[in-house]
Amino acid sequence: MFTIQQSNELVFPVEDDKILEELLADHVLLSGSTGTNSTNKDTKKRKRISSVSIQKNKDGNGNEINNKKVLRREIEKQRRQEMTELCASLRSLLPVEFLKGKRSISDHMHEAVNYIKHVQTSIEELSLRRDELKNGAKNRSSSVGSNHSIMLNPCRDGVEILISCLKPEGFHLSRVLVELLERGLNVTSCVTTKVNDKLLHRIQIEASDLTAGIDLSVLQQRLTNMINNLG
Hints:
Layout: E1 3-4, E2 10-11, H1 14-93, H2 96-99, H3 105-135, E3 142-144, E4 148-155, E5 158-166, H4 173-182, E6 187-195, E7 198-206, H5 209-212, H6 216-230
Antiparallel strand pairs: 1-2, 3-4, 4-5, 5-7, 6-7
InterPro entries: bHLH_dom, HLH_DNA-bd_sf, MASH1/Ascl1a-like
GO biological process, one term: regulation of DNA-templated transcription
Protein name: Transcription factor bHLH
């Protein structure tokens, strides 16, 4: 409270000054506390944002890895399915006698190779018979009695000689090979195959200047005479 003295001056008590100072001090404390709280809130907010970003990055990397695993599984699944379909298709092409007692895929593959060789041999024999029937006496092939036949065919790699004869009789194939070598011809392969009751000899002569100018009719006649004499 204040009092009025005789000099008409207004005088404030000392207690009022103390109250005013305390009010100012409280205001300063409140202001400082508010600023500190704001700073703490901002710091916590930044930490939360940083934590969310890190978690999102982890989730993104995890999803990418999972997607790659799923893709690899799908590719492997598709590959296995395609292999199964191909093996089933191959198995359907093989005759029953080649599949008896064979259950595994490896057995089917092995029998497929055997079947291909069997078909190739049959084709060679049938080709020989077809050409003999088609061209007859005019063909470059000629019959040696009734049990032997010989045919010469030009091919990309040189000349192919096919000789067919009965198994019991046969002839000395080495004499034919010697005759070819003496003429300067290079024999690259000689394969003998059993077809029913016959032997099929397939001789391959390498292409060269000699084979380019060779007269197949003359060589055919020479080999025919030789087989006649050997028979």
